[in-house]
Specification:
CATH topology: Phosphatase 2c, domain 1
CATH superfamily: PPM-type phosphatase domain
Mean pLDDT: 88
Largest sheet: 7 strands, antiparallel
Helix content: 25-40%
Shape: globular
Organism: Microbulbifer okhotskensis
InterPro entries: PP2C (IPR015655), PPM-type-like_dom_sf (IPR036457), PPM-type_phosphatase-like_dom (IPR001932)
Structural class: alpha+beta
Radius of gyration: 20 Å
Number of strands: 12
Low-confidence stretches: 263-287
GO molecular function: protein serine/threonine phosphatase activity
Number of helices: 8
Pfam families: PP2C_2
Number of domains: 1
Protein name: Stp1/IreP family PP2C-type Ser/Thr phosphatase
CATH architecture: 4-Layer Sandwich
Order of helices and strands: EEEHHHEEEEEHHEEHHHEE
């Protein structure tokens, strides 16, 4: 049996250029259950529109996740709980999209608003991530950094088709053009993937105001060396601002740690062995 500990922290910053922060972040870690989440939304849509969109999306998803831990959830099997988590995220995304469309219908000044969304949820050793747009989630542990999301953007499609290199994508004039967003149409499709964690890890969720300046190597260096781990959010914000801060910057960190509680029986001997590294750091469950 393993004792699982989850801790979370988040920060959003207006940056050095923008007059309004159109990012929103929500995070939570239960004091008595191995449950935690981070939600990041990066809004768009002109004066107050982007801020309104990201706030509505983040708060809607937050409300769905806060309503999750009920008696029926605890009485389910592990496999059923994973299905409930997935269904909850799908429902949350659809509800957020509907809330945005309803707001736009009632308030014409918000007609151009929309938002990206990335939501990462941990239940015990089960991690599930939903995303729309170019806000990202990363996982880091002793075996390195893994990007858990793939941008819904014009440049990502061009990279995938071989029209651009990764370096050219960073310099492209359309690098901020996304192909999916909440609040744009009645039908919205989030990519939802899940993993089972096999060792202690850090999860980082962010808006593109951070990845505009910090590539995967820079992100990995911070996550690998900056301690306490939860204070990486301040380092990320500071680094992005120091390098220009042209956009709003948002980052959330979730720290996952697991400790075995297995007790040695009186007739057993304690033997110290060197652990064998697993073939893979995390095991993908759904795609």
């Amino acid at each position: 049996m393993d004792q699982i500990s989850l801790a979370v922290n988040g920060r959003t910053d207006i940056g050095q250029v923008r007059e309004e922060n159109e990012d929103s972040i929500r995070w939570f870690a239960s004091a008595d259950q191995p449950f935690a989440y981070i939600v990041v939304a990066d809004g768009m849509g002109g004066y107050t529109g982007g801020a309104t969109a990201s706030k509505i999306a983040a708060e809607t998803v937050q409300a769905h996740l806060d309503d999750l831990l009920k008696h029926t959830f605890f009485s389910c099997t592990s496999e059923q709980q994973q299905l409930i988590l997935r269904a909850t995220l799908i429902d949350a995304v659809n509800s957020a999209n509907t809330a945005l469309l309803n707001t736009k219908n009632l308030h014409p000044q918000f007609s151009n608003m929309g938002t990206t969304l990335v939501a990462a949820v941990m239940w015990r050793d089960f991690l599930i991530v939903a995303h729309i747009g170019d806000s990202r989630a990363y996982l880091w542990n002793n075996y390195g950094l893994q990007r858990l999301t793939r941008d819904h953007s014009v440049v990502q499609e061009m990279v995938d088709s071989g029209q651009l290199t990764q370096q050219q994508a960073k310099e492209s004039n359309v690098r901020n053009h996304i192909t999916r967003a909440l609040g744009v149409s009645g039908n919205v499709e989030a990519d939802i993937n899940s993993w089972k964690l096999t060792q202690n890890a850090l999860l980082m969720v962010c808006s593109d105001g951070l990845t505009e300046y910090l590539d995967d190597h820079a992100i990995e260096r911070v996550l690998a060396t900056h301690r306490p781990a939860l204070e990486c959010v301040y380092r990320f914000i500071d680094d992005a601002n120091r390098l220009g801060g042209r956009d709003n910057i948002t980052a959330g960190i979730l720290e996952y740690s697991s400790q075995s509680l297995r007790q040695i029986l009186p007739h057993e001997q304690s033997v110290t062995e060197r652990p064998t590294p697993p073939d893979v750091t995390i095991r993908k469950l759904h795609r």
